Each structure stands twice: as C-alpha cells, then as structure tokens.
Amino acid sequence: MAASASSLLAAAASSSCAAISSRLPAGAPAAASVPSASRHSCASLRASPARRHRSRFIASVAPTMQPPAESRVSTVVDVDLGDRSYPIYIGAGLLDEPDLLQRHVHGKRVLVVTNTTVAPLYLEKVTWALTHNNPNVSVESVILPDGEKYKDMDTLMKVFDKAVESRLDRRCTFVALGGGVIGDMCGFAAAAFLRGVNFIQIPTTLMAQVDSSVGGKTGINHPLGKNLIGAFYQPQCVLIDTDTLNTLPDRELASGIAEVVKYGLIRDAPFFEWQEKNMSALLAREPSALAYAIKRSCENKAEVVAQDEKESGLRATLNLGHTFGHAIETGIGYGAWLHGEAVAAGTVMAADMSHRLGWIDESIRKRVVDILEQAKLPITPPETMTVEKFKSIMAVDKKVADGLLRLILLKGPLGSCVFTGEYDRKALDETLHAFSNN
Amino acid sequence: MAASASSLLAAAASSSCAAISSRLPAGAPAAASVPSASRHSCASLRASPARRHRSRFIASVAPTMQPPAESRVSTVVDVDLGDRSYPIYIGAGLLDEPDLLQRHVHGKRVLVVTNTTVAPLYLEKVTWALTHNNPNVSVESVILPDGEKYKDMDTLMKVFDKAVESRLDRRCTFVALGGGVIGDMCGFAAAAFLRGVNFIQIPTTLMAQVDSSVGGKTGINHPLGKNLIGAFYQPQCVLIDTDTLNTLPDRELASGIAEVVKYGLIRDAPFFEWQEKNMSALLAREPSALAYAIKRSCENKAEVVAQDEKESGLRATLNLGHTFGHAIETGIGYGAWLHGEAVAAGTVMAADMSHRLGWIDESIRKRVVDILEQAKLPITPPETMTVEKFKSIMAVDKKVADGLLRLILLKGPLGSCVFTGEYDRKALDETLHAFSNN
Known about the structure:
The structure is a homodimer of 438-residue chains. With 438 residues, chain A is of the alpha/beta class. The first copy, chain A, contains 16 helices and 14 strands. Chain A has an eight-stranded mixed β-sheet with strand order 1-2-3-10-7-6-4-5, sandwiched between helices. In chain A, a hairpin with a 6-residue loop joins strand 2 (73-79) and strand 3 (86-91). The longest helix of chain A has 21 residues, at 287-307. Chain A is globular.
C-alpha cells in the first residue's frame, strides 16, 4: 500500500502544475516583485516555454499588485475538473461587484445559508450583490447557529426545511456565506436537495478561504466522528473577498494559518520559507501578505484536487495532521477548539512521529513547532485527550482501509510527505504517549 | 421549453437501443420463442447488422428459456454509464449462487440494510451468500421498520449509526435487501457515508425489481414532499432473484405492475399489448410471465437511464403519473397507499388530462383505465384529496422549473409521451376537478 501510494505521489508531483492556471483580469500590471514561492514551488513550471509563460502569469500576481480600475479581482485560480471546473476569485471588495456573483447564479431563486455571526455583517451586502440591477432574482436566507457543534443532521434539516417551504426548484442556487462549517453544510444540502442544485461559496474566514471552500468536500459530523456523512460536490464558483477578514477574530485568523502552513509542509517548501519570513505580517493582517497566502494556498489545493478529486491517494495528503486533529475535535467535543487549532497540534504530532520513524531531520520537526508557535497556535493536544481516546476515535477515521489506519507523514526534505499505512506501529504509540496521558 | 423537451425526446428515441445490451450466460440456448415486444420496441434495433445481432441476443432471452446448468441467471441487462456501468442479474434462485454477489463486494466488511418484514425471510440466506467459502468477509446488518412512512432522516440516521459504530471504512459495501424504500435509503446512505461507499441492490418486491433498484436514484422523503433529499448514486450490481416474489403479498405485486404498465405507455407499445394479453398470468404469478415483465422493464429503464442519468429531460418520462401520485402519497400520509397504487391513480389522471388536451384518442385513455383495473389497482385518488391539496403539493414537485410545473403526458399513438410545461392550464384544472373534491 505504502509503495503504491508513494509512487502515486511521485508521479503526481512531476505534473502537478499542469492542472491549474492562474489568470489575470485585463489591464493588470504584467510585472511585479516575485515571491520565491511562485518561482520554485513546482518543478514542471520550468519544463517548457508554454509553462514558463503560465508561470509568469502566476508570478505576476504579486502581493504588491494594484487591482485594475474596472475590477477588484486580483487573482483568478481555476480548479480544473473537466465539466465541473470552476474559478476562485480572490480580491478586496469583490462583494461590491454584483456581476461576479450574478454570472454564476442559475435560475431565479437563491437561498443564502449563513450563521448568526456572519448574517449581521454581510447578509445584506450579499443580497444586494445578488439582486442589484437584477429584479428577476429573489433571495431567501436561512441563518444557522454558529459553530462546529451545529454541523449536524438536525441543523442541516433546517436548510432543507427552508428550501422546501420556499418551494425552491431544481433551477435554484444555494449560496454558502460564512466559514468552513457553513460551506460544508450548505454544500451538502445543495448536493442532496432535489438530488443536486447549483451552489456558490463565499468564504468569510481564512480557514474557509485557504482550504475548505475549495475542492468540493462537503458534509456534516456524526456524534462519533468528523465529516463522516457528506458528498463530493463542486461549487459554481468560489468568491473570496479578502475584506471580510477585517471582521475575523484573531483566534480564527490563526486557525486558518494552520492550513496555510500545511501546504508548505506537504508540497511547497518555498511557500513554507516565505511563511517563516512573513508570519508577523500575516498576524498583523498586512493585506498583501494575506492575499499572497490565500492565492498560493488556493493554487496548491486546486492542483491537488484537479489530480485526485475523490481522494484516491494524492488528495489525502491535504490531511496532514488532520487524523490527530479530528480525534482532538471529536474527543473534546465539537467546537471546544477551532479546527485549525486541533490541526496545529495534530501537525506537530505528525512531525514528531515522522521524526521518530527517521523520515525527517530534527531541524524540520523543530521548524514545524516554531512556525506554529509563532502563529500562536497550540502545539500539544488538550490534557483530556488520553492515548485510549486518540486510538478509539482514530479507528473510525475515513482513511482507515480494511482496518489499517493510513497517515500522512513527512518524509525527506522540507515540502515532502507520504500517505501510507506502512509504518512502525511503535512510532505511533510513542508519539501518542509523548503527547497525551494514559 | 416544451419544444426543446419534445425534440430531445425525439432525438433520444432514434438511438435509444444503442445504450444497453443484454447478455446471456455461456451455454444459454440461442433460440426461443420471441415475444413481439422484443422485436418491435425499438426502431434502431433494426438499423444495422450489428444492432440486429444485439437484438437477437435480447430476443433469445424469452420467457420459456431454461437457465443453463451452471447458473440460474436467465438474463443480464447492462446499464451503460461509462465507468459507472453495472449489470442487472435476473433469474430464479440467484441468492443460492454466492459467487454472483461476492464478485461485486469490495473490501472485507458488508452492511446489509433491510427491514422487519424482509429480514426474517431472506437475511440469513443473503448473509450465507456473502460469506460462503469466503471467511474474510464479515457481515453486519441493520433492520429498519417497514414502510414508506419511515423513509425519513431519523431512520436514515440509524444506518449511519450502525455503520459508524461498526467502524466500517471506505472499502466496505452496503447491501440493500428489500423493496423500494430500503433501496432508496440504503443507496443514499451509501452515497453519503464517508462521502460514498460501494453498494449492491437486492430488490425483493416487484416494484423495486422493475423500477426503483435500477438507475441510481436514491433518497428520502421530506414531510412536505416525496424524495426531496437524495443523490444520484449507482450500485455495483442489481441482483433480482425472482423467487423472492413468492413471499410478496398480492397488493404489493399489483403495486409493481403499475410501473410495468408505465413502460408500455411511455415508450413500448408492444410491451403494453403483451401486458393486456398476459395480465392474468402476471397476477397468477406465472414465473415466465413475471420474468419477462421484469426483464423488459429493466431493459426499458436501462435504455432511458443510460441516455439521461441525471434527468435533464428523457428520464423524466419515467415519472408518468408520478406527479399526481406523489401528491396523493404526500397528501394522505406516506404509507397509507402503496407507491404503485398512487401511481396507478395518477396515471389515469395523466391519461385523462392528455385526452382533454386532444393529445390522445379516447381509446387509449380507456385502455389505460382498463389495464389498471384488471391489475386491481385504484383508478381514482382517495376522497380526501382535494383540488387545493393536489395543487399545493404539486408546487414543490422536483419537476417544477422556475415556477412552471412540467408534466409527463401521453401524446400521439400508444407508447408515446412528452415531458412539457406547455399545456393549457384549463385541462389540468379540469382533470383535478374531475378526480377530486373542491
């Protein structure tokens, strides 16, 4: 299993940049300072003149770029999935551009799914953007309670209730306005309502913008495990208005950074090095730093998803630290920790185990701990997580196959990982004992 | 809308037989008496020598055929959906052939989903078939309450609970053992559990064997409407052991016949004529008559589904009578009438409306009433269904698009229909008033 997973990863890596393209709106400046991440993150970008041209396009979307006068879209990342392909728009003030949203609405009826925190901030603006100069469209909304602990079947039924009561038909569009929980629930509701209607993602947290809104994983939690019920279902577009981060609490911002760090560790060493240098800028919400981190994260995610939509191998690597992290979230009760907080502690555990196996140098393990500490994220699980609790929850992880728990572990130089069930069980035991009580 | 739907149907009809093939197991007799339905049901079967050859294969699977010594599979109908294609096995005693089932089981863990009526009859036998000479496979089961009124989210959660508690992983297989309700719920559970696991359909009612187990429509009811929450999700195979009909109550048998009649009316006039001649044989459970009705129904369904899996047009025609029928089921409470009973009354209403529109002759309308009466099915809705009740429930039907209710109506000679929103509203009103109280 490990061998085939490893060779899949190796094969995939060699063509990983062919799967996406980044476009600039007309009129965008063609030259700007180029972060090293863009130049070196993907070997195949340097493989041919055509790819080098595409590379320049990516490179030109630099943090210091000014948006063109006619649109605030600073970057478009395409997720290439054949007839299910879609664009990710990234920029400041995109909710002030009605046309962007409206071009992806199908039918005349829209249901906005949001929560009690986000609705007072952005629901009116989104409704305006959907209906401005567009009197044919009518907008309904359903406002769910906020938090991971509501990502359950009872709350999901409220979305179906609203959709049925509003007599929405197959030609309607669901819009997810909020963080990862809203995106996951709205997406699954869109996948299942009338066996599938259109939907649009408007992520308003860094976590959702860099990770959960991209790639079509939707679902809800089961009391015994995270995301155990759901669907692969792709949106019509993802619209990332970076201005929405202005209202995001610090703790939520840090949570999103945990996933940004992940991309560097699993496949993009220059991006990780960029983060080491720019973490204080990210925490200070420096707009160009945030925009670059979001863009590069979406590009990494789009590349992986385009090659392995249904997670037969490569895509699983996006779950570095998540098996430990999900166990923490389930073990201490959904919502007690933010997702990225649990992932941060889980990433440290995965790095620790990789080092115990002799797969990475101590220096890499230390850099993982350092960058997450710098981001003010937890680097150990909560004390209530016992070894036994970890083991029993990890046994129902989706990456178990025929009883064997497969993990994403770091292996080799910075930016390299494997997805494998072939590891010494002793290392896993030692890591669990080092990080939790008996 | 109507024009494009009609032309879609016309275009589809001209190639409708290319989409499926019927295979015979090795050793099956090559010649037998050929029912007229097989020879004339599809114009394109006569179009080329290659197709004629395929036609002979279909034709040779006649009701009087003896199964070959080594297998009781009398017919295999392939549902052609690219990489999601699968076989439908039809024959007597197929549950006594462990290999048939086992070749479609993925992984080592199986969850059989069944109900309190079917479990005492067939669960032991199916468990034996899954595990005979196959000690690596372990079988769990979940036994749901029986009936349409339990096709809801609460009951569905029992399937997820069992799957999670049993620590099933992505390489497991769900098996639906029962009628349409079990197939729809197990299929949706398989689609959503861990975002999709393998599943197998073992339909044990005529309704499920001729219709609901084929084509991948899965889902549950919402209190306000039937099948409003679900997924398109195809099984690995459908295994129809016609012996299971021996335990089916008469009322359930008649319910299934309503769907058999439907195939004749919408696209297969010779099959309808065969039914008119053989209805008493079907009601008397004459094995060869039942086997032929099942085979020809599956072939019709497979042809339609292969051309229009996601119901963008053609597939909707399989819902003749269902918009009225679903309204009856929802209006009087799920389970009060069997699905086929509601469809029968709905089919009479659709024929009545088609006649009022001048789209079919009175003789066809009368033949519809006669054949359903002969099958001992209701030909009028229950008295509690008022015009208002029909209208309010039909407004949330899945075939509403941008507020316009599209219907499947008969039009032209026997065996022809349209799926259209362009009809005189007065005819619909008149039909509703003719069949229900104000």
